[in-house]
Amino acid sequence: MATITTEGVRHVANLARLEFNDEETEQFTEQLARILDYIGTLNELETDEVPPTSHIHPHQVFIMGSQEGAAHVAKPDVVKPSYPREEVLANAPEAEEGYFGVPRVVDRSH
Amino acid sequence: MLYELTAHALHEKLKNQEITAVELAESVYARVDEVERHVKGYLTLTKDTALEQANRADTGFQKGDEMPPLAGIPIAIKDVICTKGVRTTCGSKILESFVPPYDATVMTKLYKQGVVMIGKTNMDEFAMGSSTENSAYQITHNPWNLDTIPGGSSGGSAAVVSADTAVCSLGSDTGGSIRQPAALCGVVGMKPTYGRVSRYGLVAFASSLDQIGPFTKDVTDCALLLNAICGSDVLDATSVDMSVPDFTQGLINDVKGLKIGVPKEYFTPALDTEIADCIHSAIAVLEGLGATVKEISLPHTEYAIATYYIIAPAEASANLARYDGVRYGYRHENPEDLINMYKRTRSEGFGEEVKRRIMLGTFALSAGYQDAYYKKAQKVRTLIKSDFDAAFEKVDVIATPTSPTPAFKIGERIADPLQMYLSDVMTTPASHAGLPGISVPCGFVKSGLPVGLQLLGAPFAEEKVLRVAYTFEQNTEHHRQKPQIQTNGVVS
Predict the structure, then answer these.
(1) Which of B38, B191, B270, B295 could in theory staple to B173 by disulfide, Cβ–Cβ 3.0 to 4.6 A?
(2) Selecting from 1.10.20.60, 3.90.550.10, 1.20.920.10, 2.60.410.10, what CATH number does the domain A6-44 have?
(3) CA nearest B382 in A: which residue?
(4) For A60-104, how does the pLDDT look when each residue is reduced to its tens digit (9 = 90+)?
(5) CA dihedral A20, A24, A26, A29 (to 10 degrees)
(6) Which residues make beta-bridge pairs with B294?
(7) Residue A87: closest CA among chain B residues belongs to which residue?
(8) Looking at this predicted complex, what is its ipTM?
C-alpha cells in the first residue's frame, strides 16, 4: 500500500471539497500516513479468493412482506405525499421562490 | 428518589397511580438542575414539550387505559436522531441550526408508547470518536469521575443515564459507540443486530454499520426499549423484514445448558489487568450458575480496527458529501463562487476528526486506491464475519471485555488519533459482523471506575444475549451501584 504525500493530501482535499492551510496540510499528511501505515497490516492477509462483504445480510432484493427475514427490501412503488416545501426550505441558508439559493453558477454576460 | 428508578419499576408506580408522569418528569428535571452543570450530557433540554407529553400520559393512566410500558417514562435521545421541531446538531457546528421537519422512525415508535423526551444528548461530532471530546459544543464528564471521559460517541446518552438525569436513552453504535460508553459509565447499553432497528432519521455515518440502540439502568429496561424500537420499516431498505419477538421472553434467570465462548484474542497485553480480572470473575459467575464456558478463537480480531478505519471513513466520506451549505446547516458567508462556497462551508463547519475521516475515506475510495483499501477491507470483513459464524456453531454467546481500559482522563488521547481509534478494539469486530452485543456492568477497578462485560450473539439472537446478561445481573450487584457526583465538594 502506498503512503500519502502533501501533494496527495491537497488532491484528496479538493476531491472532498475541503481546504487546508500549509500547516494543516502538513499535519494531515503526517497523521494520515501514520494511520495508513497501521492499516497496511491488512496486507499480511491473503485475500485473493475471499469475497468482499458490503452488508452483512445477503444481497438480494425482495418486495416488503414477500419473504420473512429478507434484507434489502424494496417498498412498493407508490407515489405518496412528501414533506411540505416550506418546512423543507425552512432549514436552507438561502431560499427563493420555493427553491434553494446558491451563488451564481452561470455568467450572465454569455 | 423517582429519578433513580428503572423504567419497569416506574411503570408499576404510574399504573397504580402512586405517582404521575408529571411528578416523574419534574423529578428528573430537578436532578438535571442539580448535576447537569457538572456532567454536561445534554445539548438541548425540551422541558415544555416533555411536560405536555407527561400530561398526556397522565390522562391515559387516570382514565385507566391499558398503557404501554414506556408511557410517561423520561428518555434522552442522542443528537444524531432526528426529532421533528427539535434542533438536531449531531454535535457539529455545520448543523447548529438544523431543525428536522420529520421524526426518525424510532421517535415515532417511542412517541406511540407515550415516552417523555427530556432532551438531546451530547456526542462526538457525527458519531466519530470514542470520548465525546469531538463535540463542537461541550465536553461531557463521566459521572464516576468528572476528570474522565464518558466514552463515545454516545457519551452524553451514557452519562445522563449514569447520572440519573434520564431514566433511559437512545444512542447509535457504528464501531462500539453504545457499548463502550455504557461500559465506561457503568450502565447497560445494547447494539441490536444490524437491520433490527430502522435507521430512517438517524443521520448517516457509516451505513453498512450504523445501528440505533438503548442505554438503560438494567437489562429488563433494555428489553422493553428493544420491544419499542425494533421492526422493519418501509422507510429503511436495510431494516430486515422479520417479525420482532417479545424481548422480555429473554429475561430468564438461568444459563444452565448455555455455552459461552471466551475468545483468547481479546485477552492481549493491551488489556488492563484489573479489567481482565473483572471479566474473568464475571465469566466464573456465569460458569457457577451452570453455563459451560469454553475458550474459542477469533483469529482475525487484530485486523478489525484497520478494517474499520477504512470502511467507516469511506462510507462517511460519501454520506457527509451532503453538507454543502445548500439545503440545511451552516453556509460560509462570502464565497467567491459555488465551489469555493462548498469548500469554505465544509472546512469551517466540520471539526478536525470529521475532516480527518473524510480525508481518509476519500483517499481510500479515490482512483487507483479503491481495490487496495476499500475492497481489501471488505474482504477482511468477510474473514472477521466467518470467524464469528464458525464460533457460533460451537457456542451460544461470546463473552469479552467491552473496553480495554476504564475511562481515561479528558485530553489524554485527543492529540493522538490512532491511539484513540484503538479504544474500539473490543467492539469493532462484532460491528463488522452485524452482531447483537450488550455491555453490562461487571465490577470496578481500584480507582472506582466501572467495567463492562460485553456479550455477543449470532445475528438476531438478541434473546440469548439478554438471557445471559439478565442472569448475570440478577446474581450480582454491580448494576445497583450509583456514582457519587462531586459537586464543589458536595456529593450529589
Answers:
(1) B191
(2) 1.10.20.60
(3) A53
(4) 555 555 565 566 667 778 898 888 999 999 999 999 999 999 998
(5) -80
(6) B261
(7) B101
(8) 0.92
